[in-house]
Amino acid sequence: MVRRRVFPAAALAVAVLLGVGGCTEPTPEPVRLSIATGSQTGVYYVFGKAYAAIVERELPYVETNVLITTASAQNVELVGDGRAQLGFTQADILPSTGNKVMAVARVYDDLLHLVTRADGPVRDLADLKGRRVSVGAPGSGTAITANRLLDVAELAGDRVEVHQLGLDASAAALRKGEIDAFFFSGGPPVRAVEQLVADLPIRLVELGGWTDALRVRYSEVYVSRDVPYSVYGLDPISTVADPNYLVVPAGMDEDLVFELTRMLMEHRDELGVAHPAAGRMNPQSAIATAPLPLHPGAARYYQSIKP
Same domain for 18 and 118? Predict the structure, then answer.
């Protein structure tokens, strides 16, 4: 059974959330819904743009605003203080976020990429010692995961020359020979890595053997996942993976979150055209959002589609 779309009610919920609606009637003016994503060549941004188009199509009173950010940590901050109404985040930053945000869905798993030149000296994690390495931009999920990995590998502190660059800047620095390697956590294929493969011989470094150490010291959210040859045309590896969530403010209107969750799940195929990682969502895995609880509106949606 297809649920009837309640456009005015959802629009009114957004208006109330943002403080621009009337007391009893939905505003006739468009209402803006900001989505915090990440770098323009990262998965969050591509996913967010495609999702925003669906929301605008199905909720005609809504105008979306896709924010370019440093990703996870900044996104949670933006959603938590009301500057954004939706945001993407890695699961490993969430134990410190308090109760300001709640989950809409587990959307896919981020895979930690350690990218280096194919003709360079970095062949395993230990080879980073004494090298110039970008760990991601401050406020990004990449930076959190990468620094934790360096810690468990006893490469923290002055053992590595750390650069704090975003994805695009990291790729540019590797091209110019300004760094020896960079980390990026994202759902494959990552566009910036694909672009590197097209014009620079690179390789991905095996990291899967460090998953257990990360789980013991930091969080049980970490798992190992494979990056097969078919993704980038590079030698297959195993690496550390981290679940990825779409989050909203804890106080967001329940009916609105129901509608946002419905659109996310009902349009998985369309989102998957934008990026394969988005197409891997399903209701069974979407509800696994520990340590973050599902928003009541999202929980009600998943309950409504149970057989």
Answer: no
Distance, first Cα to last Cα, the chain: 11
Local structure of residue 142 (DSSP, 8 states) = H
* Cα distance between residue 244 and residue 166, in whole Å: 18
Residue 126 buriedness (CB in 10 A; 0-12 / 13-18 / 19+): exposed
Q: Is the bond into 28 cis (omega within 30 degrees of 0)?
A: no
- What's this model's pTM, rounded to 2 decimal places? 0.80
Residues 201-248 have pLDDT tens digits of 999 999 999 999 999 999 889 999 999 999 999 999 999 999 999 999
DSSP 220: T
Strands 86-90 and 237-249, bridge-based pairing? antiparallel
Torsion angle of C-alpha atoms 143, 148, 151, 156, degrees rounded to 10:
10
Question: Measured in whole angstroms, how far is the alpha carbon of residue 85 from the centre of its chain?
Answer: 15
H or E element, residue 110:
strand 101-117
User: Which of 243, 263, 285 is the C-terminal boundary of a domain?
Assistant: 243
